[in-house]
Records
---
Amino acid sequence: MDKAEYPVGRFPIVKTWPVVDGGKFPVKAFEGEVIDFGATAFREGHDKLAVELVLTSPSGKTTRHPMLPGQPGLDQWVTRLQLTEVGSYSYQVSAWDDEYGSWVHATSVKLAAQVDQELMILEGKKLLERMSSGKAKTIAAKFEASLKILDDKKLSPTEKFEKVIASGVSELAAKHPLRERETLSEAVSINCERKLAGSGSWYEFFPRSEGAKQNRDGSWVSGTFKSATKSLQRVSDMGFDVLYLPPIHPIGTSHRKGKNNTLVAEKGDPGSPWAIGGKEGGHDAIHPDLGTEKDFAAFVKAANKLGIEIAMDLALQASPNHPWVKSNPQWFTTRADGTIAYAENPPKKYQDIYPINFDNDPVGIHAEVLRVLEKWISLGVKIFRVDNPHTKTVEFWQQLIAEVNQKHPEVIFLAEAFTRPAMMHTLGKIGFQQSYCYFAWRNTKAELASYLNELAQESADFFRPSFWVNTPDILTEYLQFGGRPAFKIRATIAATAGPSWGMYAGFELYEAVARAGSEENIDNEKYEYKARDFVGSEDRGVSLAPRIRLLNKLRRENPALGQLRNITNHYSDDEQILVYAKRLAPEFNGGKDNTVIVVVNTDPHSVRETMVHPDMQALELPHSFEVEDLITGKKFTWGEHNFVRLDAFSEPAHILRVIR
Amino acid sequence: MDKAEYPVGRFPIVKTWPVVDGGKFPVKAFEGEVIDFGATAFREGHDKLAVELVLTSPSGKTTRHPMLPGQPGLDQWVTRLQLTEVGSYSYQVSAWDDEYGSWVHATSVKLAAQVDQELMILEGKKLLERMSSGKAKTIAAKFEASLKILDDKKLSPTEKFEKVIASGVSELAAKHPLRERETLSEAVSINCERKLAGSGSWYEFFPRSEGAKQNRDGSWVSGTFKSATKSLQRVSDMGFDVLYLPPIHPIGTSHRKGKNNTLVAEKGDPGSPWAIGGKEGGHDAIHPDLGTEKDFAAFVKAANKLGIEIAMDLALQASPNHPWVKSNPQWFTTRADGTIAYAENPPKKYQDIYPINFDNDPVGIHAEVLRVLEKWISLGVKIFRVDNPHTKTVEFWQQLIAEVNQKHPEVIFLAEAFTRPAMMHTLGKIGFQQSYCYFAWRNTKAELASYLNELAQESADFFRPSFWVNTPDILTEYLQFGGRPAFKIRATIAATAGPSWGMYAGFELYEAVARAGSEENIDNEKYEYKARDFVGSEDRGVSLAPRIRLLNKLRRENPALGQLRNITNHYSDDEQILVYAKRLAPEFNGGKDNTVIVVVNTDPHSVRETMVHPDMQALELPHSFEVEDLITGKKFTWGEHNFVRLDAFSEPAHILRVIR
């Protein structure tokens, strides 16, 4: 066997992290993200090993970062770095024989024991000579100075050693190491994407509802991109970065769903935007009620001007009236009787939807979807929220996202796959920048603490969660039955724990009534227009908008909240008072520490008092410190054990910034 | 990007097991070992997926084994197989579109709901026609028969479906599946070694002590291979498979250690066998006191005749008198003053030992060690116990073991590396067939339960532990202070929990006195001769030999005890009563179930009563069952909750065989 065929090198480096499936997929990161790098590396015998992280940035700059021992006994080496460039990073771990370190250790022990004293000084001289050899004059001169000390006949061996160490030879050696017998681990790629891929606040509205008006006869005039443009200021005022629109394409008429998901639509029912395609066109067309392509482009521009990006829906399915049904019937499944298969979950039928068959003509459907995406990208869209990606082949997404991102690395795909972990995680691995997650159904302290830990510690390398408090499909029991405190609690947790969080219009109005037997709003906007009185509600004090504004403001002012991997759980004695913290150390935040501790009463029906015990070591907190509650502005002196009282009916949370 | 470059295939298979470091190292197995295979595989949408294990044996035979769903919600697929051929296996997981399964499911649901009844029969016909197409006449005829049922105009759709299912079409389809859109995982190698690599009982003695005699003047006559041959019957009677000998080479005289590890040897002190090399030769020579090469070969043959293999020590270090010091000084480290570096752990010096430097001449030292091994292999040695492999480079062992095993696949290397897990595990991964482990220091119920679980569930793919109750270097506090019950308890656990276990001579005589301040026997055999009265002690009832004989007999009669991966922990209400079980299901044991439940009082100073609650599901136990205690021969009726009383002073354990 050739030496190169053996898996282990001179110094075993048996594990490095972050890594996804042994390097099969690149690690996910986003601009400004702080990442813990580590390796399990060791050597035979008792001599010293040096371990470094060798990082190559997208622009090709390679830097070396010393790694320090981690958990004792586990041969782990760690360092923490912030990625600041968008593009493909790669890293390797380098391990080499730390001859200088071994010499310093052995010499100090032997001098103390009065063993081999002259010999150790002689060994040191030979080592420094080797380190100096071939170096530039200025550096060689510094080594020369050290050698002179070791040669000084007036000094005893111990004096020589103490003097040469005091002269800074260790720092010199660290700067110019020998790196003998260097072993490098396999390179691992990190895909560092733009900030919104990992961090941002999202709002969802149906443009047809924004400015929609009901006539006296009960019929409706649809909102348009023009009327919806007026709503952008409201979204911007609340501090959102992204506005996500449900599908804006023509809607099918065959088997159109009526109000409250009834099987037969009445006259004037607009239909579900997800029943895509009609005589006016398919996925590349705009619903005529909403306006023209020009109107859409203007809407996108107006949003961008307010600092808002538009996210479009990509729902790969067709109504029976979609142009594809005639032009490309091979993109659907034809049944034995010659009809096209509609969606079904036997015995349930969804006759308004034809699912796409990705096996019949994978090349054709891929090309068509690419064409559609290119069109919307050309109109200013850089974010796509993908409807039910788990009902399409993973292979399809893998190729599509890779091709789109190759040409448009700024494009972000958000996966709406509420399914089992294997599929959800794999969609993240193969390219989805972000994913809806189970946050909506994690409501108790225990559930949330465990889920936050999973998301931050276990899956952050490949799965970036988006914390949605509600959607047109999701109105959880917690919100249905928790009253207004529930809405406040959920928004507070989503906005502070989730680097990405989202909210669907109506949440701020505490819309809490579900259609019987379902987990979604009654009179659901999916099947009808909704004209909401946002301004009036706020005037009457029946709106969460002020809190939303505050939360998004705090997110902007506290960059620690924009990170995922930095979540740490902390203790409280109460079974429903959740405590977590996020920190950006000064070196990752322009020299300013940013530590935020969030304490929330997760029981919306109670007033609770308890003691909170922060993990002082994890947050590098002093014995006593000041915190400022960013909700009330009040300051407290905190330490290892702190009393809190949280009244869900008035204020269920503290958002505490540590003043250092 | 080329399609082949994408990591995920048509059906994602994101994980398969067993696997070691993503396939970097082959999985370890041994002849007869039963292994759990698994995969995480899933598909989009709601249709059915079929998953199979495709196993290729060393002789090139490929077999397919259906995998069944594992833990719900995790998309896991599992099967359990026994490897019976020595050599390199490889496996892949195959996932394909289970069109037949999807049709059966949809049809049964739709017929019940009276939806698409005729259509589903039509779909079934088309599917069966495709499955039949191109098949051999006899098989096609069977499909024909099914199709006829579906064509029978006298039957309703439901009758057709029920009749065709009753006709055995599902079994036919399972035998002749379409396997459309088959996706294969990457191949993983399994190195299946001979049984002793994973399972066996070991005994250690110093040949120079076996038959050694003390003269009246206090001087000794060394035992020889000839005199030690007489001891083989004793070892064989106790039922051991392997006899391990400490180094048998000439011993250095410079700085030779005296009795009890003193720095100066007295006249007649034989020295430590690990200080290898003298004027009579080095690692390729035999200590003249022991005899000649011929004597050694005869000794090996005599052992083999009794069913015992000889394991030799491989201690890669030299005394200052080793021939290598003159012939190849580059294999050692020369210090700045020109002297050769002896072993040290500053300020401690081990001047009787020169460690080898593997960096100066890796090719030369490799060739020399290979030559030495080949010599011993030619004399009948097939097992090497490697002394302190963790103080040599991993690279060296990796290459050496690969080369030796390529030529001599039967050769087994046992690593004696008591160090941190990264090194211990890596030595297993790179080739060591077996490893000393931390069993000796796991004494309480909690420690043992956790360690057994780790060894059987977490590291079994790459680390095969050997459970030694003692060694010349290890006399644990538990044995020093636990009295005779401690010896009985430890032997019982080692022999029943460990598929490989070992014992160093003297254990059966309850030798429990340590040298002060050390964790090894006083008057240690490493530095002097030991003439033990095995027969007399047994006659006086002061010997554990009868128990050892019983334990090794039970091991032969209960093949479940020879497996590692089958250990399961079970509950008892007492904090020191340990309960574990091992099972071989009938299909892996010639049609006969073998289930052994071991209940041990791990506290050697107590009599304890408690309830034992076996995990009925894990062992597939009926509500009530008979067990036979293999120590006493008594039978009990057991169920979910069972009373036990274990008196450490008389009998601290039950070894219960389940009678099915």
---
Amino acid sequence: MNKNSSNKMALAPNTSNKRETVCIFGTGDFGRALGHKMIQSGYPVVFGSRSAQTSSLIPKDAEVLSHAEAAQKAAIIIIAVQRQHYNFLTPLAEILHGKVLVDVSNNLKINQYPESNAEYLAQLVPGAKVVKAFNTVSAWALQSGTLDASRQVFVCGDDMEAKQMVMDIVRALGLTPLDKGSLLAAQEIENYPLQLFPMWKFPILLSLGLTAFFFFYCLIRDVIYPYVYENKDFSFFIAISIPNRICPILALILLALVYLPGVLAAVIQLYRGTKYRRFPDWLDKWMLCRKQLGLVALAFASLHVLYTLVIPIRSFVRWRISSRIVSQALNNKTEPLNTTNAWLSDSYLALGILGFFLFVLLGITSLPSVSNNVNWREFRFVQSKLGYLTLILCTAHTLVYGGNRFLSPSSYRWYLPNAYMLSLIVPCIVLVAKFVLIFPCLDKPLTQIRQGWERKPQYSE
Amino acid sequence: MNKNSSNKMALAPNTSNKRETVCIFGTGDFGRALGHKMIQSGYPVVFGSRSAQTSSLIPKDAEVLSHAEAAQKAAIIIIAVQRQHYNFLTPLAEILHGKVLVDVSNNLKINQYPESNAEYLAQLVPGAKVVKAFNTVSAWALQSGTLDASRQVFVCGDDMEAKQMVMDIVRALGLTPLDKGSLLAAQEIENYPLQLFPMWKFPILLSLGLTAFFFFYCLIRDVIYPYVYENKDFSFFIAISIPNRICPILALILLALVYLPGVLAAVIQLYRGTKYRRFPDWLDKWMLCRKQLGLVALAFASLHVLYTLVIPIRSFVRWRISSRIVSQALNNKTEPLNTTNAWLSDSYLALGILGFFLFVLLGITSLPSVSNNVNWREFRFVQSKLGYLTLILCTAHTLVYGGNRFLSPSSYRWYLPNAYMLSLIVPCIVLVAKFVLIFPCLDKPLTQIRQGWERKPQYSE
Amino acid sequence: MNKNSSNKMALAPNTSNKRETVCIFGTGDFGRALGHKMIQSGYPVVFGSRSAQTSSLIPKDAEVLSHAEAAQKAAIIIIAVQRQHYNFLTPLAEILHGKVLVDVSNNLKINQYPESNAEYLAQLVPGAKVVKAFNTVSAWALQSGTLDASRQVFVCGDDMEAKQMVMDIVRALGLTPLDKGSLLAAQEIENYPLQLFPMWKFPILLSLGLTAFFFFYCLIRDVIYPYVYENKDFSFFIAISIPNRICPILALILLALVYLPGVLAAVIQLYRGTKYRRFPDWLDKWMLCRKQLGLVALAFASLHVLYTLVIPIRSFVRWRISSRIVSQALNNKTEPLNTTNAWLSDSYLALGILGFFLFVLLGITSLPSVSNNVNWREFRFVQSKLGYLTLILCTAHTLVYGGNRFLSPSSYRWYLPNAYMLSLIVPCIVLVAKFVLIFPCLDKPLTQIRQGWERKPQYSE
């Protein structure tokens, strides 16, 4: 929150002396925006342009010269042109010798070129010190001053001193430089702004698919069935009742899917007798998005909690309860307390509360700033021990919720079992498999394999 | 959490050899506290003082010498005196030549002097390498060892090596140095500890004002009106019922105010036909505190959720429900299920739950550690797409809540409409304006303008 | 979340040229895992081994040579052997002169040796530049590529350039280096991965003890007493009712224990008349784990909220309410609204909601990434002002909950007061003491003492 104010500070006039001139090649939108911002932060700016005539769009305090003249005025030259036009720099090689060239370019596709733009630039002008920076910042954000998004600017380059100079400019503009090492990191830095939640695609598609399936499943059982057989209109179940069936089911299945790949990996390693062979590709990808799967599961669990807690203020529920009480009063009978029911109801709620509580704890520890403060041993403890405890509690919650309804024939409409029964399949498999893997006769060889031991060492050669 | 323990580690005796002597000018409270801490961390400490006689307050293991003698014993000299007394350093210029001077001073007001204290120090002793550091740490925190607050120490300076030396000391004391670049950053670093949530002032004042207005509005409608006309004492509404009206109203209005400046900015840019003119000052400031406005709105939304969920355990609500059921039973009639009401009630709750859920997601992505892991494209996607979806859901939640009461005369007491109707004005304006701006005839020129195109380029020259 | 993908990037073939050869001494599990990962990231790897014969486990693309031959091929040598075997390096001292030696070792116990492994290594090979790194990464995580835990690699060393080289390798492997300063930090870095939530031990043990005590206390009062005297089976209270008594009690007591040490410290300082004497050890430790105490208290408060909100959907509660309504209907009487009860019920709920809301705010500001964005003044404001307000609200919540039951004889079963009465003792002591300390006659000298003033300065010499 204070970052914004620090930004304002940097614009204060008293910091406007002493800065060294910066040259910008290219008078396109990004070059102009960067120039504007630099002038505001007290840097004298010189634009290098083909035409060398002042365009009306260029900030007034900036000079516009030919490329060669502009380059001679500054030690740092920002190359704000597109990669396709980089070859205009070749004739300038002599003037650019020893200068710091800042590559700010982005591509349109991930891994568009065999080498990164910055590395290509370094090849074109071998005498210059190339630094990659600023590509993650948008011209619009620079201009409007409303940098609410990440203020991190990734910087990489082979020359330490050149990198320091660029990082100082980044700081002066009110942004936070992050040193990503040598110029080899440029490819990664150039790919970064093109991603849109890459790790989230699979978990979200999977949960959308499952949501659609369970929605129609519940629609058939809970809305269409009573309409056909009892001619009752329960279409309003679509708003809360059915979502409150889907959410816990998805939360449970997705949570189990977080722990399934670990179990599969253990089985594969036990079967192969070595850890030195790569897992199948799908398993690798699955393992990489476990955190995202878990967070989507947590989202569904949170929705389930909210949907459950509003139950008593639903108009339908109030009607059902009051009509039941009225009929009791009219029939002049009072029900005694059914202790078994009280036990079932309370323990199923308690298990759900504890499971959700641990689930939220898991979610909090997966926040970047929290997991950075936790060492490997602590992280393993939380994610593995607490994670399995959460899975056990949530599965138990569902089992107790089922209670004595599992075998009741009324649970099967059109031979379709209650949806929650389907949700128990995956978690039960995971828990049983994990339970089996804990036995010493399996746990011991697995530990040995993970420490590097091999059953049949011949094939790895 | 492990930071605390790392602090303990640094005090362990086995690290107490090898450190280089540090000199501290000034035996005031902060100088002594820093000296204490450095001795604990294994640094030999020499105090430079006017009187050169050991005071009882100075740590026992430290030497106290004259300024000149003390300065000669160390490569790093911490200037723990106030800016007004810096001129005693001028005669020492020769001895201080080449030394690292650490400016730890703070001011009483933001931007108190034209240049920062550290820059002033650098002017006074031109031969020394001035580094700004430690000004964000309090003497009390250093002394008591309970550094629960931020352990970040901002460091800036023009000499890389001097900065590294100071950063090593910072680390040795169990704190985290943060390189803020050259000495130009000193002004900002000196202003930093004087701020008290500067970006939060406007959102909090605004919400306090709106809260007061809506409190009295609801008091008149819900407590005074029934007291005057029906002689009923509903004063206890002040505890929950009225807050539960105010909270959702403020959440909705503030959320709409987050998106209003963006719409205004687009209108201004379309009207002006350029992006190269600054927005009016109030709009700039408004845009800078959108995140804070959103978070205050989220706080009100969370309170609304809590207030709503306790409804069924309120004594008044239980009484109302039971007396309604008893009267039904006594009148010997059972109400049939009103499907329309069930639909309205359920869909209004479902919209609220989904809106709140997305709102919490927005809040989580605004956590610094999360938004740092998100690139510009992803941030835009979350804050703009998800943000508008949240606004739409919350507005729909309020509209459906109103349901068929909008035109009912009972909603107007003393010609005052229900408070929630007032809350709909701003969000509806924002949504309609945004909807209009999406039309290609407006969206296209706007995109062009934001890419640097100008309708009347003459004026900018 | 993007970190994972950046990891994938680093494995792309186009970055596999240009890297400098790295030598690894030791072909154990960690050495091999690191070698695998480095080869994947494009580093030519040479293993130095006693036997110098290729083992089947060693990555195929790596060479295996004798120690001396391998060392000559690379500027960076990773020492992946255990500390006990370091003495094989002494005869190689000449070859290792000027090389960068990376110590990756860990110990089995905290502070196992008088000096850290890295410092021991630096003593053994005085001509080499020793850098400590990689000890916080596990071989299993490196191999499986699923580095979901912290990607931070702590790096320390006395030679800046050597440290930079190692940090570049760390970045190339997709990890985040964190410069911890000179080699003196090695001890702390080596202790780090051995910790398991050291600051949480005391708060968790304390809360487990208190939980056990209050569980049996409530069991006697709420389950055994009615069973003995009224022969009623309320054993199902164990699931929700009793936890929902224990949770608020523990939340309140632990929250008060967060503020008690501050009050005690003030009293001790006032009594001693100085701040220059260390607090007793137990008070120091207590103060260091206040954050953890507060977070455990918040966990209990959250559970209390969840347990409370499910009350209306508990089977027992529904039965109790409906049987009460039925008996009212059968007795043909309607209760009038009891305004006092409505006031008590609503204000107790409202106090609880506000208290919990502030408590959650306190918890959010204690997230590392948030507290890092807050300066000392802001942190003090939140933790002290908001903290005390939370304590006041929560204590008031409990007092109003008690309402007029404090003196009712039915509250005392077997002479045991209601459990919530016990929970009020500590918070009331803290609030009264704090209230007394605010009086100017005590606040003034305390402020002076904290600014360094002493009542009897003689003893400190």
